[in-house]
Amino acid sequence: MPRKALTTAAAALSLALLPGCVSVEAGDPFADVDLQRQDYILAAVVSPARPAEDTARDAARKPAEIVAFSGLRRGDTVAEIAPGGGYYTRILSQVVGPEGRVYAILTADRANRPGGRDAIDAIAEQYGNVEVVVVDSYAGMSLPRPVDLVWTTENYHDLANGDIAGANRAVFAALKPGGLYFVEDHAAPGTGTDATATLHRIDPEAVRNQVSAAGFALEAESDLLANPADPHTARVFDYEGTTDKFALRFRKPG
């Protein structure tokens, strides 16, 4: 992208990152994002290394704003739970930079399927700071070293179908003191966990309660991906519009 276009995009991003996009209990330390951090987040999102099928989803997923909200910084070590096709893995890798590390975490049952880890292995080969970590379960997750941030997008509802208390305790144990836990998922307000297996959605209040029970403090929540037009009654895969999503940032005391 030409320098002028980057500058224009950076200006647009700076407007998007104004603190009006979040709801905070007691002050959000990331509401005023420094300009240098905006630059490297933007550079990761506009990188020509990202495939067209990923960038086509950016308008709906708002990756620059979401990464800024998550609190991720240059040089961080981040664990990404269930990276899927690597939409965010590529962005996280470039945000943390060569001094940082991304652990892309797959369960053994997923990794052992035919072709189950082909996409993420290809990303790890392309991006030298990405390492694939295979675990028996997220509740038994063990990482090579403590991390600054644990990240999961559109997958928490799947974790909730298993030992979610154990998974959240494992996340807590994997983080450094003061580390962050970022959760973004499809919303089904008022349903608790009743829609996790059927609609592939979850009640954000259920997430708040479950993660808080593991010892985390809710630091901020964002309505960046909210869609009031979503009736919350359709399966995520069947809904023709953009689903209503929530984003939550928790902190481990330290």
UniProtKB/TrEMBL annotation:
It holds the Pfam family PCMT. SUPFAM superfamilies: S-adenosyl-L-methionine-dependent methyltransferases (SSF53335). GO terms for molecular function: methyltransferase activity. It comes from the Bacteria. Keywords: Methyltransferase, Signal, Transferase. GO terms for biological process: methylation. CDD domains: AdoMet_MTases. Residues 1-26 form the signal peptide. The keyword Signal applies. This is Methyltransferase. It comes from Aurantiacibacter spongiae. The lineage of its organism: Bacteria, Pseudomonadati, Pseudomonadota, Alphaproteobacteria, Sphingomonadales.
